[in-house]
């Protein structure tokens, strides 16, 4: 794997942790092309979370994902990312990363360990990501979302 591609994959994988540390939701898009689309799979999970199928099929543009992430930031104490494996096809400009996000929510004793297998399509230059297909750990993601909803419901003054 080229050093540039490996660096891009690692910066992408760690972008959520960097965003939490800086309290800046725009950092989750730091490695993405302006026209990047993010698709979360499986579709059945996203439908269960209340998203309409046409929205799921269109994917999330950067600004929508940043807004969603910004709503989570007040409730996240810390997060880190463990990269298990990566691969890169230099001819097709495609990468794969297997990782686990370890998330500590404020006032919640148990950490969430959300495992993902992520497929990345890079732009022609190989310097930005233009498409993300993220297969997520449904069980752990549901626990995480339920904990977030509980924290949001209990937030004083809301």
Task: Describe this entry's structure for a reader.
With 158 residues, the chain is α+β, with helices and mostly antiparallel strands. It has a single domain, classed as Nuclear Transport Factor 2, Chain: A (Roll). The chain is built from six helices and six strands; from the N terminus they run H-H-E-H-H-E-H-E-E-E-E-H. A six-stranded mixed beta sheet has the order 2-1-6-5-4-3. The longest helix is centred in the C-terminal third of the chain and has 17 residues, at 138-154. It is globular. It starts with a helix and ends with a helix. The model has no long low-confidence stretch (mean pLDDT 94).
Keywords:
single chain, Nuclear Transport Factor 2, Chain: A
Topology:
Layout: H1 3-13, H2 15-22, E1 32-41, H3 43-48, H4 53-58, E2 60-61, H5 62-72, E3 76-89, E4 94-105, E5 112-122, E6 129-136, H6 138-154
